DNA sequence: GGATGGATTGACT
DNA sequence: GTCAATCCATCCT
C-alpha cells in the first residue's frame, strides 16, 4: 500500500483521472476504490477554471494533490483533486470498502450501489465538505493509496455539463457496478 | 441591484 | 419522465 505523493498529480488532469481509477481513497478511514472520475482543465469550457481564478475555484490554481471542494446546485458538495494549475479531477464514484456503517448512517440508505455512486453522494458518504477545500491529500484526514493490482479503464463523455460535451474525459473501471451511470451501449466515445 | 443557471440528487407523476 | 431544493459566479439592467 503506497500513499500517492503530491508531485504524482503535477500533470494533465486527463492523465491523472485515468490513473486514479483503481486507487483507494479514504477520509477518516471511510472510503473505497475509485471507480469513476472526470477531468477538467483550464482550456475546457465546462471547467470552473475556464474563466480564470475566482474565490470559489482558488484551490484549482493552488498546489497539486490538494482538494478542490465546491458546492453544487446550492446543496451538494463535490470533491476534486488538483493537478497542474487550473486543472483537476472530479471524484464521481467509489466502490465502498471501509467504514460502510458510517456511510450508511450518513447516506440514509443501505444499498451498497447507491452509497458512493455520484459526486454528491461520495462527499456525503465520506463527510467531505467545504472545510476540506484546499487541504492536501497526503495527510489526515485523507489517505490516497496507489493501485495494488492492474485495472482496465474505459472512457466516455462527461455527465451533467452543457459545454465541452464531446470531450471524452470521463473514466471508469471496466465492469464496475458501482459507477454513477453505465457507459452508453456500443462503442465508447 | 436583480436574474439566471449549474461538474446534483431524491421525491414524485 | 418532471420538479424543487438553494449557493454563488456571472451576466444583465
Automatic annotation (TrEMBL):
One of its GO terms (biological process) is base-excision repair. Pfam families: Pur_DNA_glyco (PF02245). Coiled coil: none annotated. The keyword Hydrolase applies. Its EC number is 3.2.2.-. Keywords: DNA damage, DNA repair, Hydrolase. It comes from the Bacteria. One of its GO terms (molecular function) is alkylbase DNA N-glycosylase activity. Belongs to the DNA glycosylase MPG family. This is Putative 3-methyladenine DNA glycosylase. It comes from Methylobacterium nodulans (strain LMG 21967 / CNCM I-2342 / ORS 2060).
Amino acid at each position: 500500500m503506497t500513499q500517492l505523493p503530491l508531485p504524482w498529480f503535477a500533470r494533465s488532469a486527463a492523465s491523472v483521472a485515468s490513473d486514479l481509477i483503481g486507487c483507494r481513497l479514504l477520509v477518516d478511514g471511510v472510503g473505497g476504490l475509485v471507480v469513476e472520475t472526470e477531468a477538467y482543465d483550464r482550456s475546457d469550457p465546462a471547467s470552473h477554471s475556464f474563466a480564470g481564478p475566482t474565490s470559489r475555484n482558488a484551490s484549482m490554481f493552488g498546489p497539486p494533490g490538494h482538494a478542490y471542494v465546491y458546492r453544487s446546485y446550492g446543496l451538494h458538495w463535490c470533491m476534486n483533486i488538483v493537478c497542474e494549475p487550473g486543472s483537476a479531477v472530479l471524484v464521481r464514484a467509489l466502490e465502498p470498502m471501509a467504514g460502510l456503517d458510517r456511510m450508511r448512517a450518513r447516506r440514509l440508505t443501505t444499498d451498497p450501489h447507491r452509497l458512493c455512486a455520484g459526486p454528491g453522494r461520495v462527499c456525503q458518504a465520506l463527510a467531505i465538505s467545504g472545510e476540506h477545500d484546499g487541504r492536501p491529500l497526503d495527510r489526515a484526514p485523507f489517505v490516497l493509496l496507489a493501485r495494488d493490482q492492474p485495472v482496465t479503464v474505459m472512457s466516455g463523455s462527461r455527465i451533467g455539463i452543457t459545454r465541452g460535451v464531446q470531450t471524452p474525459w470521463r473514466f471508469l473501471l471496466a465492469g464496475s457496478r458501482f459507477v454513477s451511470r453505465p457507459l452508453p451501449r456500443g462503442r465508447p466515445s
